[in-house]
Amino acid sequence: MIEIPETEYELTAIRAQGAGGQNVNKVSSAIHLRFDIVASSLSDWLKERLLNSKDSRITDEGVLVLKAQQYRTQEANKKDAIKRLHEIVNAANQVKPTRYATRPTRASQKRRVDSKSLRGQIKRLRGKIAAE
Question: Of 5-14, 23-32, 69-78, where does the model show the most confidence?
């Protein structure tokens, strides 16, 4: 698991969107987290993986921008934003094993064909009975 120092990301308090009653226009409880991937202390390989990911939260300049506004308090939103940042970086660090194509077994092919013919039989039985 990769830990990111606090000096590498910037937290800014902003006003949250949505309903909030009397405090919605007074209290800045939402958090904007900005993490510059290019200037970070991450390995070059991990930086490349993050920058090449199709994440819309990463700007063209290579800055990851997260907005946390799920909770009512600023402190809880800070923790949520930092947790999400670590999740994104650690997910990019995971390398999925190569998947090798395999053929279905003969038994699974037979089960599939049998279930299809059973469905067809059920549907045939739903039809009108021919009167003689």
Answer: 69-78
For the chain, how far is it from start to end, CA to CA, in angstroms? 75
Residue 53 three-state SS: coil
Query: Quick check: pTM over 0.85?
Result: no
Q: How far is CA 127 from CA 116, 117, 119, 122, 132, in A?
A: 18, 16, 13, 9, 15
Q: What is the mean pLDDT of residues 18-33?
A: 71
CA–CA–CA angle 47, 53, 57 (5° rounding): 95
Count of alpha carbons within 13 angstroms of residue 41, beta-carbon side: 8
Answer whether 32's CB lies under 8 Å from 65's CB: yes
- Please name each of the domains of the chain with its CATH number: 6-93 (3.30.160.20)
User: Residue 19, SS3?
Assistant: coil
Q: What percent of the chain has pLDDT over 70?
A: 91
